[in-house]
Amino acid sequence: MDKPVGKNVLDTQRDGWVGRPLDRVEGPLKVTGGARYAYEVMQGPATAYGYVVEGSIGKGRIRSIDVRAAESAPGVLLVLTYLNAPAQGQGNHREAHPVLTGPQVDYNGQPVAFVVAETFEQARAAAYLVRVSYDRAPGNYVLRANLNRARTPVVGSGTPPDSAVGNFDAAFAAAPVKLDEIYNTPLQSHAMMEPHATLAVWAGDQLTLHTSNQMLSQGRLAVARTLKIPVGNVRLVSHYIGGGFGAKLWVNADAILAAIAARQLNRPVKTALTRQQEFPVTTHRSDTIQRIRLGTDREGHILAIGHDVFSGNLPSEQTYEAAAMQTRSLYAGANRETRHRLAPLDIPVASSMRAPGEAVGLLALESAMDELAVKLNIDPIELRVRNEPTEDPERHVPFSSRHLVPCLQQGAKRFGWAARHPRPGQVRDGRWMVGMGVAVATRGNPLQLSKANVRLGPDGIVRVRMAMTDIGTGTYTILTQIAAEMLGVPPDRIHMEIGDTAYPQASGSGGSFGAASSGSALFVACERLRDKLAAAAGVDPKTARFSDGRLRGAGRSRALVDLVGANGLEADGEIQPGETEKNYSQQSYGAHFAEVGVDADTGEVRLRRMLGVFTAGRILNAKTARSQAIGGMVFGVGSALEEDLVLDARSGAFVNHDLAEYHVPVHADIPEIDAIFLPELDDMSNPLKSKGIGELGICGAGAALANAIYNACGARVRDYPITLDKLLPALPTQS
C-alpha cells in the first residue's frame, strides 16, 4: 500500500453488497451445531486425551516428580514431564512455546506434566496422582513492589517505548494550570467462551493441528520452531474460534503438548484447558501504574503532556503494555514525553488483550482530561476540541483521515449532553445521584501482509481461499460480501474457505487489522479475476460491469460461467503495508457518552444508558460493525466497574481463576446501549478504504463511566475497577 486509492468498484456500484447489514453467513451452522470448533473435530476411536498438570509454586525448581501412580492408572498411555519430553526450540512467547524443558518453575500454574489416556476422564483422574516436590525460591510477583527493578523494554526495530518532543519538563513547570495524577489498572483476563483446545494428528512427518488460534500463518512458524521441524511439515486448522480477544494470538501449551504426545504415541491426541487452567497457563493483560501530567494555559490549550507507564512481565519477555501510545497523537501540544517501563515479574506471561495499550491507557488519559476540564471550568467536550491537532503532533505527518470532533459533536447532540449539569451531585432520581461522562476513543489502524486466492468454477461457484480466521467477529460474512460485490454474484454463490494454513498466508484476526488486511487481499484477487473475465469477453476491464452473474460492457452481456471454461478461472491477490503507513498517521476514532446512577447510601453504580459514535472508514457490514462496537463498549464497562484478576502476593497465584469470581458484565449490567458510525472513506488506509473496528469500542469506554460517576456524585476514583470499597470513602457526606 504505497499510494492513495483512487475511485474503485466499491465507490461506483450502487446498492452493492459491501456495507449491507447482511446476516452472518455461517450463522445457521453455529446455531445448529454444524460448526466444528477445535475440540469438536473428530478423528475416530484412536484419539487419546490429554490433561495438563500445573505447578503449584510461584518460583523454584522441581526436586522430584513421581508419576508411577499416574502411569498405572486405568487407561493411561503416557505421562510427559521434563524427564521424557524432547528438546525444543526457544524464543519469546510470540516466537515459540517450549514446554516441559527442565525442572525450573518460572510462575505459578506452569505446566509440569501432561497425562494422556484413552478418555478425558481417565486423564483427568490420573493427573491428580502425579506427585511433585519442589525447592521453593523467593519470587517477585507484585508490580508496585518491583518498580525499582523496571527497565526500558528492548523492542528492536519496533516502535520505541519512549518519545520526546520539545522540552516537556520546562513547559510543564511553567504551565499556569497543571494536573499530575497516578492511575492504576488491574491485571485482566481474556475470559472468552471457548477455552484453548487442540487435536494433534501426525501422518508420517506431517503434523496437523486442529487448534483454536487467531493467527494461523504466524502460529505455524512458532510450532515448527518449537518442535524443530520444517515449517512445510506443519498445518494449522481453525475453521471456527469461540472468541479470543488476544489470548489465542500465539501458540500455547495445549498445541505443543498435544503435538509432542501424539508423536510419541503415534496416534491423535486431543486436549483442552479447563476454565481454571486458562488463567495461568495462557496469557493475561498486565496491570499498569500510569502517571499523567498535563500543563495548559488558562484557556485549556495543552502546553505540556506527559504519560509514564509501568507494566510487568516474565524476565524473559519484552512485551509491555503500551498504554501511552495513543497519547503521542491524540491531542495537540508542543512539549511532549511518553515513557514505558517493564518490571520483571515471576507470574504468567503478559501479552495482548483487546486493544493492548489504548484500552487501559485511555482509562487514565481520558480520566485526566476530565479532571483537567474541572480544573479549568471548561466543558469536557470543548476542552478536547480546543486541543484538536492539525497533524500528528509527534510524527509530524498528516492524518490519513480524522473526524474525531464530529464524533463528539454528533454524540453530544444525540445523547442530550446539553442537559448535563457541570457541577457534580446536582441531579437526583430518587436515591440515585445521576451523572454524565464523555471520553474519546482511538485505536491504531495497521495493515498486515495477506494473500488470497479466488476461483470461479464452471458451476458458477466462487471459492475463496486464505489462511484467515473468524473469531466471532464476522470475517466469513464480510469476505463473502466483498467477493459478491466485486464479481457480481449473490452471496449464496460464494464459498468461503478460510482457517487453514494449506491456503494462502493471511494476517489472521487481531490488532484491528484482520478485516482490512484479508479483505484487501481478496479485493486485489477479485480485481485480477475481473480482468481475466473481461479479457475472455473481449471487453475493456475499465468499462466492464459485473452483476447478476453476468459481465456487461461494449454492448455485450455474457454469463460469467460461459467465460471460465471447463477448468474455471482463478487469480491471486496480495496486500502489504507500504509508504502510506509511513507517510500518514492512521487511526480510527470515536466518542463515548455514558449516564450512570450512583446510590447515595450504598455507592452502588448502575449504567443507565450509553452511546458510542465512531468513524472507521468504509463500513463493510453495518450489522457486524455495530455488534463489534457494542461488544467493545460492554468490555469497557467491565474494565471500569468489574474486571480484576486478583493476585496472591505470597505465591503469585491468580485467586479468582474462574467465571464465578472473575467478574464480567452480564445482561443485567447493560441497559440501553447504542453505537453509530459516521460516513467516512480513508483512501490512505487500504483498497477498501476501511479502518479497524474490532477494538475501537473498548477504547475510552471505561473512562466515560468513570467521568460520569464523578459528575454524579463528586467522587474521583483513579484505581480501576471502581468498586464499592473504593467509591464509598470518596462519596460526599450526606447532609
Description:
With 735 residues, this protein is α+β, with helices and mostly antiparallel strands. 24% of the residues lie in helices and 24% in strands. The protein has 17 helices and 27 strands. Strands 3-5-1-12-9-10-11 form a seven-stranded mixed sheet, sandwiched between helices. The protein has a five-stranded mixed sheet with strand order 7-15-14-13-8, with helices on both faces. Strands 16-17-25-26-27 form a five-stranded mixed sheet, with helices on both faces. Helix 9 runs parallel beside helix 16 and helix 15 crosses helix 16. The longest helix has 24 residues. The radius of gyration is 27 Å and the shape is globular. It starts with 8 loop residues before the first helix and ends in an 8-residue tail after the last helix.
Offer a concise description of the structure.
This protein has 17 helices and 27 strands. With 735 residues, it is an alpha+beta fold.
